Amino acid sequence: MANTSQPLRRTALLASGVALLGLLTACGTEGATSSGTPRPSEAARTAGANPGSGTPTSGDTAPPVGAAPTDTAGSASASARTDGRCHTAELRATVGRVDPGAGQRNFPVVLTNTSDRTCTVYGYPGTAFVDASGKQLGPDPERAPGSPGTVTLTPGKSAWAGLSFSSPQISGARTATPAALLVTPPDEREPLKVTWTAGEVPVGGNASSVSVTALEAGTGP
Fold first, then answer.
1. Taking every annotated instance into account, which residue ranges of this chain make up the domain DUF4232 (predicted)?
2. Greater pLDDT, 18 or 92
């Protein structure tokens, strides 16, 4: 009787090898198509993860690199140049000639628009006499009663406020000779410095008050 066990064993081993080769081939190609393109499930996992892809994910609101930003600051600046109050840097302050009368000394304090835009001033300027070191002389001037109004200044136009005090020779107030008058435009913090050449001013005593009026259009009475 012929021995058939050995050929059967070789046939079984050959079949097992073929099955194993098929299994290894299947493992090596899992997750890819025949062209090597990632399957949809893998592409979904990696979408937007590559910073160099240039494709933002949903919810990524950053603008593309190189895109021009929205110029909100420039728009606000352009708006401010067509309307708004006059700032210190846009003005020049001067003090006009004294207008004496009834024991008073009256001076027009003038603010002139030196900018290239139209702006406005409203209310009272701040004023203070100072010595050569910048120390204030006397109390702050008082605001004279009045009805302030908005003054529109086109380039080169002026507004003025009246600075008044009793003549020290008549009032007997304690006096000092200022080096300058500091003038602060309404709603501003930085003052303008004007050399004072009009002599003594009252800085103490019962009759030492100085007053300032609200701004109005023009350069003085």
1. 86-214
2. 92
